[in-house]
Structure formats: C-alpha cells, structure tokens
TrEMBL record, chain B:
InterPro entries associated with the record: AAA+_ATPase (IPR003593), ABC_carbohydrate_import_ATPase (IPR050107), ABC_transporter-like_ATP-bd (IPR003439), ABC_transporter-like_CS (IPR017871), P-loop_NTPase (IPR027417)
This protein's name: ABC transporter ATP-binding protein
Skewed-composition ranges (Polar residues): 509-519
Ranges of residues in domain ABC transporter: 3-238, 254-498
Region (Disordered): 504-546
Amino acid sequence: MSASTAPAPTEQVSAPPPTELSADGQRRTLLGSTLQSVLAVVTALLLGGLLVAVTDEKVRHTAGYFFARPGDTFAAMWRAASSAYVAMFHGAVYNPSGAGLSGKLYPLTETLTVATPLILAGLGVALAFRAGLFNIGAQGQILVGATLAAWVGFSWHLPAGVHLLAVLAAGALGGAVWGGIVGLLKARTGAHEVILTIMLNYVALNLVAWLLTLPGFQREGSSNPISPAVDENAMFPKLLGEHFRLHWGFVVAVLATVAVAWLLNRSTVGFELRAVGANPRAARTAGISVTRGFVVVMLLAGMLAGLAGTAQISGTEHSLTSGVAASFGFDAITVALLGRSTPWGTFFAGILYGAFRAGGVTMQSMTGTNIDIVLVVQSLIVLFVALPPLLTLATRRRRIQEVAA
Amino acid sequence: MQLTLNEVTKKFGDFTANDRVSLTVEPHQIHCLLGENGAGKSTLMNVLYGLYEPTSGAVEIDGEPVRFSGPGDAMAAGIGMVHQHFMLVPVFTVAENVALGHESTRGASLDLESTRARIREISERYGFAVDPDAVVEDLPVGVQQRVEIIKALVRDAEVLILDEPTAVLTPRETDELLEIMRQLRESGTSIVFISHKLREVRAVSDVITVIRRGRVVAQVGPETSTDELAALMVGRDVSLTVAKKPARGGGAALEVRGLTVVGDNGVVLLDGVDLDVAPGEILAVAGVQGNGQTELTQALVGLEERVSGSARLEGRELVGLGTREVLGFGVGFVPEDRSTDGLVGTFSVAENLVLDRYLDREFSRGPSLRLGAITDHAGAQVVEYDIRTGSVDSAVATLSGGNQQKVVIARELGRPLSLFVASQPTRGVDVGSIEFIHRRIVAERDTGTAVLIVSTELDEVYALADRIAVLFHGRLMGIVGPDTPREALGRMMAGEPAVAVVPPVPWDYSQQPSPSEQDNGAVVRSADAARPRSAATDRPEGNPTA
C-alpha cells in the first residue's frame, strides 16, 4: 500500500443518502404532497393570471407603446389579472355588494352547491385510485345514478322522507351497477378498467338520450329530451332556506367523506383495498382476493358517483336531461388527483373546483374575461399536480441507478 | 497493473458510505472484498469504476493518481466490471453484445468479424466454450456470465471487478467460474472479487479485505477460518452452524403426492413431486433457481392456478383451496421475494405485520380494524424479532432488507403453525440477521411444526436441513440425508437422480453416530420414512436400487 499523500479534498456535489431510514419519511411525503397540491394551485393561478393579462384588450393596447412607457403595460396587466380574480372571488366566496349578510355570503353557498356532486364523484374516483384502478367512468356512473334517481323521483309517489331515501338508494344503486360491471369484467376477464369505463360512459350517455325519447321518461307535452320533474318529496330540502340553492346533498357529501375516510383507514375492507392497490401480488400472497377487491371497490366508487347524480337530480336540476352530469364525472378525476386520493383532500379539492365554477361565471359577466380561462387554470392544476411525481420519479430513478450495483 | 485506492472516502450527505478505505490490488492477484450487504462494497467499486467521484482520497494506477469521470474512463484505463445483473441484450448474439458500444464499421455496415475473431481467441485461451454467434437469451446463466467477462477482456481489462458473480450460479458453474478466475490470474489479469459467500472467498482469494460499515476492518489471507471471517464481517462472533437437536420425526404432517403445476404456456413446471414432512422436521429443498421450487411452495399455499395431485396437511387436502383458507389451517408462508410478494412497501410496519391476519378477532371487530391492538402487536413483534425501525408507523420500504425480511418472518411465525413454508428465507439479508432468522426457524421446528425451506444457498440448506430434497426441471431428484456431500448435491442439482449420486445406502450418513446425537432413533426413523419415496420418484430413470 503506497504511503498516503495528503487527501486532496475535491469539489463534490453531494448526493442524498442511498436509503432513507428516518421514521418521519412517510410524514414528510404526506406533507410534501399537500404542499405540492397547494403549490400546483398557486402556480396555475399565476399562469392563468398571466394569460388573462395577455389576452386583455387594454393590455394589448398599452403594449403598442410598450417601449415608450412599459409601466403602462405592466399596470394594465396587473389590473386585468387582479380584477378577473377579484371578480372570481366575489362570485365564489364573498360578494361585498350583496344585500345583507345572506346576500354577501350567497356566492359561498353557490360554491358548496356546485362542489357537492364534485366531492361525491371525486370520492368515488379517489377510492378506486387507492385500490389501483383508474376510474374514468364517474361520468357514466353519475348519469345512470341520476337516471334511476330521477325515475324513482317522478314515477313513484311516496311520503316525505321515505321518498328521498328511496331516491338516494336508487341513485346509489344505479351508479353501483354501472361501476360494478367494470369491476366484474376486470375481475373475470382482465379487461382494462380505463377502456371499460370510457366505453361505458358512451353507453350511459346514449342510454339516457334514448330513454328521454320514450313516453315513460319524456315530459308530457314537451318535445325536448327532458324528464318530468321529480316529486317535491324526492327533492333535497334546502339547507339554508329558500333563498339559497344549497341543499342537504352537501351534508350527504360531508357524511360520505367521513364514511370513506373510515372505510379506507379504519376498516378491514379498506385495508384490503389499499393492499390491493399498493401491491396486488403481496395482497394475493396474504390471502386477499384481488379480483374481489376490484369488484368491491368499483361497486363503492360507482355508488358514490351515483350519489353525485342524485345530488344533481334531487338537489339542483330536479329533472333528467342528458346534460345532467355536465362534466362533473371528468372534473371528479382532477379533483381526486388534486386531493391526492385522500378523502379530505378530495373534499377540499372539490370545494376549490366548485369555487372555480361558481366564480368563473361572475368573472365572465363582470370583467368580460372568457370563462374558458377557468378551464385553462383547472388544466394547469392537473398538469402541475402530475408534474412533481414525474420529477421525483425521475430523480429517484437516477438515485437508484447511482446506488445500485 | 497495480491498482490502489488511497484513503478513499465517499459521503452521501451526512452518510459516510466509505471511510478512508485503502487497498492495493497487485497484478496476478485475486483480491476479495468481503462484507455484508450495505457495508459499502458496491459504493467502493462504483468509485473504482468511475460511477462516483470520491469525496476525498484517490484512485491510483501504478502509483499515479487518476480521475475517472465515467465508466468509459475506467474502461480505457483497463478496469472492467461484471455486474451482478448482466448488462446484456438478450436477443443479440454474443458477438453483437460484445461489440455493443464499440462497434467497428465498414462504411455504413457493421463489421463483426474482428469481434468474432477476438471472442474465439479469448474463448480458446481460457476454455470458455462460447460461440460468438449464439443468441444470448438461449445461453445458460453461467455462459452469459462468461460473455460479460469476455466483454471486459476484449477491451483489454487488466483489472476485472466481479460483483457477487456466484449469486446466480449452480455449484458446478461456481466451481467453473473459480477455475476461470484462477486462469485469468495466471495470465496476468488481477481480479477484484466481491462476495459474501465465505467458502468461495476462501477457495480462490489471495488477499481478503473485510469491510464493515464503510471501513476496512481487516486484511487477511485465505487461510482464515470461515468463523473468523464471519466475525470480522459482522463485528461480533456469529455461529454459522445453527445448534439444533436431531429432528423428532415420526409420522408426516405434510404429505405431498404427485403434485404437478402447469404454467400458463402449458409447460410443466412441477412434475409429480412426492414428499413428506414430519412434524418437528425441516425439509430443505435445494436446487438452482427456476427448477420448480417457487411453484412447489406456491402450489402448497394456493397461489398456483393449474395444480393437480395432492398435498395433505394433517389429513386435510390443501390443493384446490384458496390462499386464505390454507393460511387459516395454520400455514405460515414466506414468499421468495419479500418486496414483490411479502410486503406492501407503502404500508407501515404495523400494517405489514398483520397483512394476512387483520381478520383475526385480535385485530378487527366486525368491519372495523382495532388499530390500537395492531399497533400494540407491532410494538411487541418489533422487540421480539429485533426489527430495527424508527417507529412501527414507518413505511416498511424504508427499512433495510434484513429488517424487512424480519417483518415477514415475524408475521408468519407469530401465530401457532402446523406447517411453515419459507422460500429463500434469508436472501439479501445480512449475516447477523441470517443467524437470527435461522435460529427462529429451528425454534419453530422444535415446537413440532413441519418446516419446508426452499433455498438456492447450499450453506443455508446444510445449516437448516434435517433432510434435503433436490429439484431439477420440476422433478424430484431424490431426498437425501443432511450429510450428503456438496459434490453429490451438486450433481443432483444438475439432473442426476439420487440413486446415481449417493452411494448405495445413502442413509449411512445420517446413521453415523455423531457426538451431538443422542436420540439416534429419530434420525433413523425420519430417514426410513424418506427412503422408499426417493426411490419411487426415480421411476422415470427405472433403476430403483434402494
């Protein structure tokens, strides 16, 4: 062995330690992911603001003499973006020019009303995510749930209370059947759930359109594809009185969130579903039936989406149209994604999306900013939510390569 | 070429993977780096191979400090590396693989002729018997490894780093590799041999450098005893031989008859296996990986789809039952690969400890989990099985391999069993944990549980077995006594039936009274139980001499 020369300290980019053995590793990733979600929203809002500013008429005008007075351009940009967001805030949370406290808080109740189906369907998507299934079919499940709920709502005539429960059960059943088909087909044939759910969305949409041409479903005397209105007894009572659209469906959404949280974290079924989602091979080796898990989770996911359909029928729309699901089923995917597939994360993400929807209308009417900007912001959020896992995946892979061998 | 590591330190943040490691590889030398998993061997070799830059210290060639900015530099300097996992393109020929990255071209077309010639030349010189035009995926593992060695030699490697080269080889292939290593040494190539298998290390090394926790703890010669080497590696005395009394034997807890598993593509993976395991006995199944051992264990616990034949546990048929029912009969199962089959990485230690027991009355009431009971249970198990974890709520993936395996072992041994099935119970586990796990398995046997162990490590087979079964291409080559010589087992693992390999009365081995055996009768009894069966399984060969 040669005599040691002075160890030459070299410049070194330090890599992270090969394995993380700290106990709070898990907690940190949880915090990290919440932080990532918040950052994604903030970044998307900033970029959205930039987009508002760039497309604004006044900004374009001032940009014409940008090199003479750049300050004008920036001031106009700030004004355009901030007024758009202020308008959105006024439309979604608090309207200072409203009459009385109830008038001022009316936008907030609107947000919660819109959030209700988003939360319910989002929970369905999140639950399926946790079991490792990518449920794109919330849209179809909402539609079928809404159809069954509407049918029970307008063709049955039951006493108060009982009728609403029957409608809720019908909506849940409709969604559960539509989701369960997916679970069953996947378990039996191994077909991919993404394909199945996408196709079933089309089936559901056309099914509703066809049903609405039938004499039993189409409103008498109407040539439009719309069903009769449901009975008074089949409607959700208003939560805050007749002035507000907010209905008891929101309470159902809160209860559903609590139930899903219990199911996932404290129940044996949830334990199975999470195991199936996180490592199906280990779950199978431990005696858990993976295929049964697929069926169970799709039944539950469909049920939640079906409840979202019920909230539409009994809460706001009161009759079935083929547009009853709007785009809630697809927004539910992003809501679940933004909420990191946790029940309460989904709940708050649903409220945020509800706010975007409620506020977007006000923004358009007050500032003339196109409501599509809201869509852009929503899409950017999805992009940024999806981005960090990609980044960590890339860095982790590099780290594994370094540490391996 | 003389290769020197001079006070090499490699830090990752606060973590010191290598701490002032110095060693010199002389020409004509096989230099072994011995250490447990995670001791820092691989980091050190990655420094040597240019994948990492040392935090301080230097790599020197013939006394001159060199700096590698990547494997290309190291290769150019004459350092070649054979990775544990081969870096070969399966659908390419040997010549194409060897040429890969260094292709010579004639115009736009590839010129493989010179590569072929080089391969033939090297192959002849060292007796590799490698055909340059064979497609790599058709070659046995041992030959694929030689292709890797050829790749390094073609690039004029003077120092060859072999990273755990014997992990994938049969005993015979291992012997062949050791012979190749000796030949390479004679012709002037020096070899850095990374391993944790003490027998091989002693057989072939000139110098053994023992690394523990990133530091060189000793540099010794090959005459050092295995116990001494193990103690150096772990930092305390370890007994590699598990002290155990003879098996109690008597009757059969598990009776397997004609067990056959057919794969998805119709290939017979397990072919009519008959064997018995007595209560309080360890039957170890030896064999090179991929000869039906995995299918045997999976068929027993209901994880295989197409199974025929019978496996009775205390009279109850297991074939046809679901995994949950089998486990419910008191079967503990340790799957071969803990990370894919044994654990849910993102689940906490506590959750993993009840992964197949959460429905027990102890851990759930109706549809709801008793989280408190689960946490308490985990706390107790962590202490009992010496699982090193910050908290029972940590994700199990953050634990080291040995501790992850202890979680699986703790879960499967943590309830009353009538049969314990373990596949590779100590794969990728450090020596200290191996010792612990082996003691727990023997303790489980001593409570009267029938134990079936599958291992590709012969050392483990010898350490645990009361009887040894050998599988080859899904067929049972026979069941022999625990003292059957390594060489005989090796021949069985290569496809020779027991009757052809073991002397006419194989049971003489187990009947030779040894000082530790007081209850000789038990040994004889268990041996007797095995005899007719080993003959019966050799039916196809048609010479039941027993």
